[in-house]
Amino acid sequence: MLARHHTPHTTPAGATVRDATVAIHYGYWFEALCYENAYDQVPELLDRAMLDTPEEAVRLIRIQIRTTHPFTLSPAEVDRALAWSDGGGRIPALAALHRGEVAGFSIVLRTGIRAEWRVRPVDYLSLTATHR
């Protein structure tokens, strides 16, 4: 859906907008979060991004999982993380995103901190100012 606005008007800051394009896009909102413990209600945001495809989103999770320092994970969590990254969870996550569902993965560090990656399909609005 595209709409063009051609009438010049003054913005609150005094700038004049002559032409703008508004579009609704479909994308994938990626978040990497960290919870201090299992009961922590408010996570720390480590990373976020708007991505164009499910493949980009899952690739980013895989990169971050694989770059998590192995000394911070128990051997069982290392095995679980690599199994997800190499196909056991990656493929169902891609399928869920293609169906318009949320996907993600979490691991628990040796310290008890829980790292979580989430991706959700979203519609978002973009506004692009254009000049004649």
User: What's the end-to-end separation, in Å?
Assistant: 21 Å
Kindly report the average pLDDT value. Answer: 84
Question: What does the main sheet amount to?
Answer: 5 strands, antiparallel
Number of helices: 3
Rounded to an integer in angstroms, the radius of gyration calculated over CA atoms is: 20 Å
Quantity of strands, as a count: 7
List SSEs in N-to-C order.
EEEEEHHHEE
The fraction of residues assigned to DSSP E strands is 35-45%
Low-confidence stretches: 1-10
Structural class: alpha+beta
Helix content: 25-40%
In one word, what is the shape?
elongated
Account of the protein in words:
The protein has 132 residues and is of the alpha+beta class. Helix content is 27%, strand content 42%. The protein has 3 helices and 7 strands, in the order βββββαααββ. It has helices spanning 54-66, 75-88, 90-98; strands spanning 2-5, 9-10, 16-17, 19-35, 44-51, 103-108, 114-130. The strands form 2 sheets. Strands 1, 4, 5, 6 and 7 form a 5-stranded antiparallel beta sheet that branches. A two-stranded antiparallel ribbon has the order 2-3. Strand 4 (19-35) and strand 5 (44-51) form a beta hairpin. Helix 1 runs antiparallel to helix 2 (75-88) and helix 1 (54-66) runs antiparallel to helix 3 (90-98). The longest helix has 14 residues, at 75-88. The chain is elongated. The two termini are 21 Å apart. Residues 1-10 have low confidence and may be disordered.
